[in-house]
Amino acid sequence: MKLIYKVWFESGGARAFGEGPYRLLKGVELTGSLKESAAGLSMAYSQARRLIQCCERTLGFPLTLRKIGGATGGSSVVTDEAVKLMREYEFVRTVMEDVMGKAYKKHFGESIKIEFYTAPKRRRTKR
């Protein structure tokens, strides 16, 4: 048996940040590109852009800074505020895993595999 959980932050009753935006921003840190990060998650760039913009509106600060393409192509960087938010999110996930594992063991008396919920990877279909 395994225990599966999700963590997200809300602000004013709206989902502000969770695993999707976190993974997108991690990809931007690695590649310097929201487009490449989205592709690595089998997500359309337009969907990724809307998700980041929605989070930015809810949070009230930018998560990425974009340089529009041209001869050298565009790029994105993760803002300092976003880096801080990502570290806080990672910390909360880690603490939640520890707390839930201890609670499960206390009540059920056995070790359990704790797993953070991640949505199944979608397959892209060619049109």
Could you explain how this protein is built, in words?
The protein is α+β, with helices and mostly antiparallel strands and 127 residues long. Helix 1 crosses helix 2. It has a two-stranded parallel ribbon with strand order 1-6. Strands 2-3 form a two-stranded antiparallel ribbon. The chain has a single domain (2-116), classed as Orthogonal Bundle (Arc Repressor Mutant, subunit A). The protein starts with a strand and ends in an 11-residue tail after the last strand. The protein is built from 4 helices and 6 strands.
CATH homologous superfamily (4th level) name: Winged helix-like DNA-binding domain superfamily/Winged helix DNA-binding domain
CATH topology: Arc Repressor Mutant, subunit A
Global mean pLDDT? 85
Task: Please count the helical segments.
Answer: 4
Beta-strand content: 15-25%
Give the biggest beta sheet. 2 strands, parallel
Q: What topology, given as strand order, has the largest sheet?
A: 1-6
Counting structural domains, the number is: 1
Name of the level-1 CATH class: Mainly Alpha
Helix and strand content put the structural class at alpha+beta
Question: What low-confidence regions span 5 or more consecutive residues with pLDDT below 50?
Answer: none
| SSE pattern | EEEHHHEEHE
Number of strands: 6
